[in-house]
Structures are given as structure tokens and as C-alpha cells.
Design brief:
This protein has 229 residues and is α+β, with helices and mostly antiparallel strands. The chain has two domains: 139 residues, Lysozyme, CATH 1.10.530.10; 82 residues, SH3 Domains (SH3 type barrels). 28% of the residues lie in helices and 28% in strands. The chain contains five helices and 13 strands. The chain has a four-stranded antiparallel beta sheet, with no helix packed on it. Strand 3 and strand 4 form a beta hairpin. The radius of gyration is 20 Å and the shape is elongated. The protein starts with a helix and ends with a strand.
Length: 229
């Protein structure tokens, strides 16, 4: 089975779950956890490594500062769709994972799931984040991938990651305008996900990030402030 088949299969179900729920977790996080827990295997007995009655399997846990092999019971689901549904029920209904629910930032969501006790591995969140980045999984976080093209034919895509390039960083504002209230600042090198983009009348492109709006392209100066990672 190819990674692409795994991603598209789990991704399609995860997108449907997100669309049909008022409380959701990003499909990119769902896909990455399934990949990590199953070893990219759609036929794994436990796709998400959810503990519960079902199959007794050997697994690695981080206990007292060491990785040890233990036997634990995991829930079994009859299909990929059932497994994804069970995953969404677990994350969206448990108070432990509240920080991941309706969170548009996949990095923050992954850390919230780890901190909620999903796994004992101290590097669990970083592994999820790396899988998402390496496999461009954020494209599944949006039912319709939209884009804004600059006058120079450079496109800003929803669901993709961008990096702040100016030495002085970028101001994050409440709206897509230079006179809008400043929310915070992104230092140079900050990586953010484009949630949507807006082309102004002067040819500038503003990008909505999880924290607010930044100017990604200054049409009047032909200057790019954020480039695709």
C-alpha cells in the first residue's frame, strides 16, 4: 500500500467527519495520527492505537524515562470509516483533548492531544507535526482549496504553510488592512498556515493565519513578506 493511498483514504473520511460535526479536529492531525499509530497500514488491527477492549497487542510505552515494550488492549473497528468515527468521538468528546477541538492550528492541536495523555512518548506531538509537514496534509483541512493569485502570478494557497521572511518580522492584524488593530508580531522565520487570503485593490495579498492577518505580498513594492515553505 502506498502512502498516497493511505492518505487519500483516511483523508476523505476525516474531511467528511469534520464537515458533519460542530466539534471537530483537523483532518491533517487525524491522518498523521493514523499513520503514526498504524505504521501507514490501513489494515492494522488498531488504526489509531485507541485503548479499550478488543485486541491485546504489544506496544512501546515511555515509562520512568525509558522506552519499554508492554502488552495492552486496543479497540478494534470493522472499517477505516468506523475507526475514524471512533477517533473523532474520542478527541471531540473527551475534556482531556479540549485544546485540540475546533483548533485551526495543527501544531497546537497535536500538542494538546499529546498533553491530554494520548501517548506517553515525549516526542509524540513532534512526530505528528513532522508527518503533516512532510506529506502536505494541511490541504485536507479545507473542504475546498482556495487560492489568491498576485499580479505577478504567484499564488497563495489555503491550507499550505508559509514562512515569514523580513528581518523585522511581520505584524499580525485583526483584519486585512495596514490600519487594522495589531494583534501580535511574527518574528522572521515564523511558520504559519494560510487559512484564507485576500487580494486588495492595490495588488497586495493579505493572508489570514491562526492568529490574525499578515501582509504576504506588497503589490506596490513588488515585495514578498511570506514565502511557501
Amino acid at each position: 500500500m502506498s502512502k498516497n493511498e493511505f492518505i487519500t483514504t483516511v483523508g476523505a473520511v476525516a474531511m467528511a467527519e469534520k464537515a458533519n460535526r460542530s466539534r471537530w479536529v483537523l483532518p491533517s492531525v487525524c491522518i498523521a495520527q493514523a499513520a503514526l499509530e498504524s505504521g501507514w497500514n490501513l489494515k492494522a488491527k488498531t488504526l489509531f492505537g485507541i485503548k479499550g477492549n478488543g485486541n491485546n497487542l504489544k506496544t512501546t510505552e515511555y515509562i520512568n524515562g525509558k522506552y519499554v515494550m508492554v502488552t495492552a488492549a486496543f479497540k478494534s473497528f470493522p472499517s477505516v470509516a468506523a475507526a475514524v468515527h471512533g477517533y473523532y468521538d474520542l478527541i471531540c468528546k473527551s475534556p482531556r483533548y479540549a485544546g485540540a477541538v475546533n483548533n485551526p492550528d495543527f501544531r497546537s492541536a497535536a500538542r494538546s492531544i499529546k498533553n491530554g495523555g494520548y501517548a506517553t512518548d515525549p516526542g509524540y506531538a513532534d512526530k505528528i507535526i513532522r508527518i503533516i509537514i512532510d506529506n502536505h496534509l494541511t490541504s485536507f483541512d479545507y473542504a475546498y482549496l482556495e487560492k489568491t493569485k498576485t499580479p505577478d502570478n504567484v499564488t497563495f494557497h489555503n491550507g499550505r504553510d508559509y514562512i515569514v521572511t523580513p528581518e523585522i518580522g511581520l505584524n499580525v492584524r485583526k483584519n486585512h488592512a495596514r490600519n487594522a488593530k495589531k494583534v501580535k508580531a511574527y518574528p522572521k522565520g515564523t511558520i504559519f498556515t494560510c487559512l484564507e487570503s485576500f487580494l486588495t485593490s492595490d495588488g497586495s495579498v493579505w493572508v489570514r493565519t491562526p492568529s490574525g492577518w499578515v501582509c504576504g505580498y506588497d503589490g506596490t513594492a513588488n515585495c514578498f513578506y511570506a514565502k511557501e515553505k
